[in-house]
Design brief:
0% strand; Growth Hormone, Chain: A; single chain; mainly alpha; disordered C terminus; globular
Length: 409
């Protein structure tokens, strides 16, 4: 909890928590609505595809903005635009335009704005605390995201059952007031960031890729996040399919299942926050990544929703351990003048892997069934995790703490 000693981080944390809780209302309501309208799992996959693929395509632009523009200003503009998209989704639902294609289009618009915003968000957090509290700030930032993943879906389950999707969409739009207000109040520490050495956006992105290749710790962190996103993270959207087809339960059980991932992460956060001084980052990833894969497999095999709930709690705990630890490693290794573009590359890797994994799993679930699909992808993730765990010298680069960490040839 060391980062909470700093006023600006506390304000930003609370504003982000409120806004991300609203985002998770929409993140559950959209696939729920699409599945109800169409009855096809592929539309659940398309929801993730529409939300995250634009963010991948615009990643180089977002990274360039994060390194050349004032990050707080980028966040203010993008959060305001996302609020407008959220209110547009509420408006079209309220007037009765319940068309899957239109819902996907607005979801994609949100993804476009996220492509500009996320690298600045990731690069903004270190400016709110001194370096010695960076690991705490990164972990707590991941914790607020996962706490919102607990609160938002749980609330969404109740709202969908009692009122319908319209109220969920409206509350998401209103939730942006909190983070926009927080961004107006905070005063981050300024740093002397250099403009990119090259003038073009793609040239700057190429510099970032070359930079990552020369620093094994960053490369391992990015690849680990991509494995999680492709093979495991789509399980968060598949709670919709499991609740309806496998468990034959209603939206309230859906809300509980979707919230479980966030609850597991929040429960794991206090332990993880203290590990940065006791357990190496390499050791955390070495055991948490296979644990995550096993938890995904357990969810796929669960015959009823209480056992599925238990598995999803473990999914959330291991997800936080892998993502927060690799994010901390990248933030500690990267030089500040490269931070925005490197974080953009990391985000791009995640946001490409997640929609592709969602689309693949959504398509295969209509053929194999959702349980067999989740187990198969979890098994592939387990194989990759065990291979990485067998390479301790590779994982050891996650413990570097400056940008002089070089690639092992």
């Amino acid at each position: 909890m060391r980062a909470f000693r700093h006023r600006d981080f506390r304000i930003f944390f609370l504003g982000a928590l409120a806004s991300n809780t609203g985002n998770w209302l929409q993140n559950l309501a959209v696939p729920y609505v699409l599945f109800e309208l169409t009855g096809k799992s592929i539309w659940v996959g398309l929801a993730g595809f529409a939300q995250f693929l634009p963010a991948f395509l615009l990643g180089p632009v977002g990274g360039s903005l994060a390194d050349t523009k004032d990050r707080r200003t980028v966040l203010l503009v993008s959060q305001t635009a996302m609020a407008g998209a959220a209110m547009a989704l509420w408006a079209v639902w309220a007037i009765g335009w319940h068309r899957p294609g239109l819902i996907l289009a607005i979801t994609a618009l949100t993804g476009i704005v996220s492509g500009f915003m996320v690298p600045s968000w990731q690069a903004f957090v270190p400016s709110l605390v001194p370096r010695q509290d960076l690991a705490s700030a990164v972990t707590l930032n991941s914790t607020q995201f996962n706490a919102s993943r607990a609160f938002g879906p749980a609330l969404a389950g109740v709202i969908l059952a009692l009122s319908g999707p319209g109220l969920a969409f409206l509350l998401n739009g209103l939730s942006f007031i909190a983070v926009i207000g927080a961004l107006w109040v905070v005063r981050p520490t300024t740093t002397d960031r250099r403009a990119p050495a090259t003038h073009g956006v793609l040239d700057g992105f190429h510099d970032a890729i070359s930079y990552i290749k020369r620093r094994t710790g960053i490369l391992v962190g990015v690849l680990s996040a991509m494995l999680v996103a492709f093979f495991g993270n789509p399980v968060t959207q598949f709670t919709v399919v499991f609740a309806e087809e496998v468990y034959e339960a209603g939206p309230r059980v859906l809300g509980v299942l979707a919230a479980a991932v966030g609850v597991g992460a929040v429960l794991a956060a206090p332990v993880l926050s203290t590990w940065d001084t006791r357990v190496t980052r390499a050791a955390t990833v070495r055991y948490a990544l296979p644990g995550y894969a096993l938890a995904v497999i357990a969810f796929g095999l669960a015959p009823n929703w209480p056992l599925g709930l238990a598995a999803l709690l473990l999914v959330g705990a291991c997800f936080l351990a892998v993502i927060a630890t690799t994010n901390t490693a990248v933030q500690l290794i990267v030089a500040d003048e490269m931070r925005g573009r490197v974080m953009s590359a990391r985000v791009m890797g995640f946001t490409l892997s997640f929609p592709l994994g969602s689309l693949a799993q959504g398509a295969l679930a209509d053929v194999w069934g959702p349980q067999a699909t989740v187990v198969a992808f979890g098994g592939c993730l387990l194989a990759a995790a065990l291979y990485l765990a067998s390479r301790p010298t590779l994982l050891a680069h996650l413990d570097a703490e400056d940008d002089r960490a070089t690639r092992v040839v």
